[in-house]
């Protein structure tokens, strides 16, 4: 199944004006700072720290409670990822995940693992310690999708923010293998950034 989103030129220019700003020499680049803040604040609104889960009642007054079917969610993610990649803005998803990962403030890996499991995001395991690689089995973001490149940018950012809380060091997380590429799980390499002396 292929889904195409078509914009006419006028609509495309409208979105470009909203989504981009220019630097001092006229080059356009995404301006996603407000979007990152807005999304993270929305996630925080209904998050119950004690239970480590989201409280649906705080997000919606819908009569029908429960989650949308996973396959509908996945296809929406797939379409969004394609559009975000076209904009060259995967960093925005990473930043959103990073800020929310810091908000979680897990004290240890066990708490982070519990958060992923309770919210059906996947099953976390430490694959190796040198280099530090975290394996996410049954990834909710990409399981069942097909893509040439890793696509779990939000998860990578979330792991970065959370691991900084756990390790008390600045880290960068890079997804090195993705279930969407046909691997058995998603693999994230955590690189600790050495502070300059």
Topology:
Layout: H1 9-19, E1 20-22, E2 28-30, H2 33-45, E3 47-48, E4 53-54, H3 70-87, H4 90-104, H5 109-118, E5 123-129, E6 132-137, H6 153-167, E7 171-177, E8 186-192
Antiparallel strand pairs: 1-2, 3-4, 5-6, 6-8, 7-8
Helix pairs in contact: 2-4, 4-6
General description of the model:
The protein is α+β, with helices and mostly antiparallel strands and 197 residues long. The chain has a domain at 63-192: Trafficking protein particle complex subunit 3 (Muramoyl-pentapeptide Carboxypeptidase, domain 2, 2-Layer Sandwich), CATH 3.30.1380. It has helices at residues 9-19, 33-45, 70-87, 90-104, 109-118, 153-167, and strands at residues 20-22, 28-30, 47-48, 53-54, 123-129, 132-137, 171-177, 186-192. The strands form three sheets. Strands 5-6-8-7 form a four-stranded antiparallel β-sheet, with helices on one face. It has a two-stranded antiparallel ribbon with strand order 1-2. Residues 131-192 form the 4-vinyl reductase 4VR domain. InterPro entries: NO_sig/Golgi_transp_ligand-bd, V4R.
